[in-house]
Amino acid sequence: MRDFHEENYEITHIHRRKEAVETLLKDPEANSVAREWIANFVGYEPLSNHLDAISIQGPTDYTVEGGTDQGGWEITARNRQTVFGLVDRQHNELVALNISDPIDVSWQEEYSDAELQRVRVMRDHPDVQEFEQDRDTWAVFKVAEEIFAWKDRPHGEVSSLIFYGVGDDEVSVAVGYLDVTDPENPELVDLHFVEDFVRYPVQEMARQIVPADQTVLGEVPAVPIEQRPLKTAEDGFHRFDLLPEESFEQDNWQIEWEPPETMGVTFYGDYNGRPVFRTMNAMATPTGYNLPPREGRNTVDWFFPDHEPVFTGHHLYWDIHSIPFGGPGQLGKIDYPERRGHPSGFQFRTHYHTGAQGRGSVDFHSGAQFGPYNYNISYEFFSDGRIVPIWRRHGPGHEVESLRTYGATENWDGEENVTMQYLHYTALEVTPGTTDGVETHVFDGDQWITPDQEFYLEGEPGQKVRFENPDGSEQIDIPMDRDLELVVVPVDSDEIGPADSQKTRVEDLDAELEFYHPSQYVDGDSIQNERVIAWLIMEGTVAEVPHPAAVSGYVAQCELQVEGYGD
Hints:
Oligomer: single chain
Distance between the termini: 25 Å
Shape: globular
Mean pLDDT: 89
């Protein structure tokens, strides 16, 4: 249950998560566990205006067996424990607390011969050999070259490789970039070493905080599973029992959904028995590092100034959202009762740890979280016809040594560079009461206009895009606030997109390697009375987050308003 308005969603996740971690660590029993960890993972859930669920977890050590000759590694996180708490926000007090027993958690990193050859090439570098001295190491492929770009090299030519190194009381990483244009002869082209990949790890916070004299463990109840964060509720792993049927009706909505392939969960939605969107998908989360100053540019001109799949900064991931490559995918449905004049509704939550170990994300949840990212992608549906897509990213942190030590690009401008910037693309085929052609209109702040051709719009407060049924009353409005950008194009089977007839990311390699930004599909085609795709381009701006992401989150969201659908 949630009793805060979606307008407060961003501020809640930015500030309260950090305060909840600190409150938990002030308890001496929780503190004594966390200060012994070598790495950590955090889960957070605002339950109401005055109650937060928080969890922290981590191991005291890692052991590593195997190597390239064995085809991979087996890693064990030793003595991993999870601490759950409920925090009363009015008094910053724990009202529930429990600590799990320590367990050992193991997983395997197994690779093909071609991948192992890349590992050997990186390991041959003398600096990597020095890094491996007195450390237990294992290799992780964060992403494949198909969804990666480095410096002035186009999409698909360079791959990243990470070596974790476990010392006596710390975990550090070596990050390599390999030219793989000749698959049989990969070449190491860039190398960095990162000792502190989280600015304020939980274990360091625990060592710096002076705990209270008395614990509340045993004096307050344990945190029931239904009040724990969804992604850590099951002894530190994901909870899935809240998943709805793949077709359900609630709050005037009729929703069907399918598990993700590479573009997140596919949704189909009707409101009051009439179509709203035929398909909706989380298409990509581009994550760019070390960009030049923005200087007022839109996202495509900033990220891709040559309008090609070549990034302007140090490197970029076009993250996919799938289960095999870093699930867990669909997590559950959370119901919102009508309250204080706010309509009832529900949130369908999905979650992706890009590059993590399968649906359990066992490595990430055991503290090995340098490589994989941590995305909550949610969709809120309200009985009054509003849809609120929400993208949220947590940890491991944006003020990190890796961002300071990456080599400067030619267009880097000293301290004015942008260390990290997120984009998120959600796309849907809009169907305002009809699955045939629709009319598209734009309110530019002064008047309504009807564009003949597909377009890319940089949003400003007061602007709005409307999709109408030409033969009915139904319409879908998208307010262009929160720095939203929008691309509207007709359905084209030669393009990547959410429609059933369009290409799916990564499955068509040629289309994937050509893909960089939805505005690339704007080339003059007619949109009036056509089936159209709306691409929502949201931004997660690191510079606007007051705390490092290890203890706060980036949030981006927008809104769709459904009207004219009757009672």
